Amino acid sequence: MSTIVRDLWPTDLVAEDVLGPQDILEYQAKLLTRRMNSLLQGQVVKTDTGDRIILGFEVNAPKIDVTKQLFTVQHQSDAEYPVLLVPPDDDIPRYLQEQVLIPGQPERRIPSVMKTLNSVFQNEHMNEDTIVPAEEPRLLVSEWVAASPEQFSNKLERILNSSTVKSAILSLLAKSQRSQASANPPESPE
Questions:
Q1: Regarding beta strands 145-146 and 41-48, do their DSSP bridges make them parallel or antiparallel, or are they unpaired?
Q2: Beta bridge partners of residue 44, listed in sequence order
Q3: What is the C-alpha separation between 133 and 189, in angstroms, rounded?
Q4: Contact at 8 Å (CB) between 54 and 47?
Q5: Are 155 and 142 in contact (CB under 8 A)?
Q6: Among 83, 84, 32, CA closest to 61
Q7: Which helix (H) or strand (E) holds 67?
Q8: Which of 125, 131, 140, 174 sits at 20 to 30 Å (Cα–Cα) from 189?
Q9: Cα dihedral sign, 138-143-147-150
Q10: Cα–Cα distance for residue pair 67/40, rounded to 1 Å
Q11: Cα–Cα distance between 156 and 171 in angstroms, integer?
Q12: What is the separation, in whole angstroms, between the first and last Cα of the chain?
């Protein structure tokens, strides 16, 4: 009996230049700086906590001396993948948000209640309890964990295109441009 041995490795696992999360973030920071004509500057701030590396993606507006961290990325100190992207907090007030999630009400236990006023006066308590069903175990899937550079880039693109990140950048850009305009007022025609 002969056994056929075949290649069982994933097809996307090849010897080519593999970029780590920090390399990808630094490249995006340079692109942002170039795109904003240096009015805004992207930068990556690395923090080593011992067991993990935290990469903060920041935007600096040097004209107005403001730096804002947009989001963070975390991975183990000894392995660059998998990596966790921590999207920005949505600090936009509810009335300014394009979409607002209104959470539903979970099932809950309602304590015994008296059914009618009649039962109160007669000291008869007709109890009625709502029973909360047991929760089944469930699998929690983190949409912000990436196991490869391609997955990381796709998830990073979602964050960079989010309304929270775009709003933060546009706000810093508007303030920087206003500061630049007030420092260089237009000349009056003679």
A1: unpaired
A2: 57
A3: 78
A4: yes
A5: no
A6: 32
A7: strand 66-76
A8: 174
A9: positive
A10: 9
A11: 21
A12: 98
Omega cis (within 30) before 133: no
Residue 150 CB partners (closer than 8 Å, separation 6+): 12
The 3-class SS string of 87-143 reads: CCCCCCCHHHCCCCCCCCCCCCCCCCCCCCHHHHHCCCCCCCCCCCCCCCCCCCCCC
The vertex-85 CA angle with 148 and 156, nearest 5°, equals 70
**And the tokens for 176?**
């920087």
Residue 63 contacts residue 181 (beta carbons within 8 Å):
no
- Edge-to-edge strand ranges of the sheet holding 83-86: 41-48, 52-61, 66-76, 83-86, 145-146
CA 79 to CA 57: how far, in whole Å? 19
Domain ranges of the chain: 21-89+143-181
* Interval 106-162: pLDDT, tens: 666 656 554 444 455 555 555 556 666 777 777 777 889 999 999 999 999 999 999
* Predicted local confidence at residue 9, as pLDDT: 87
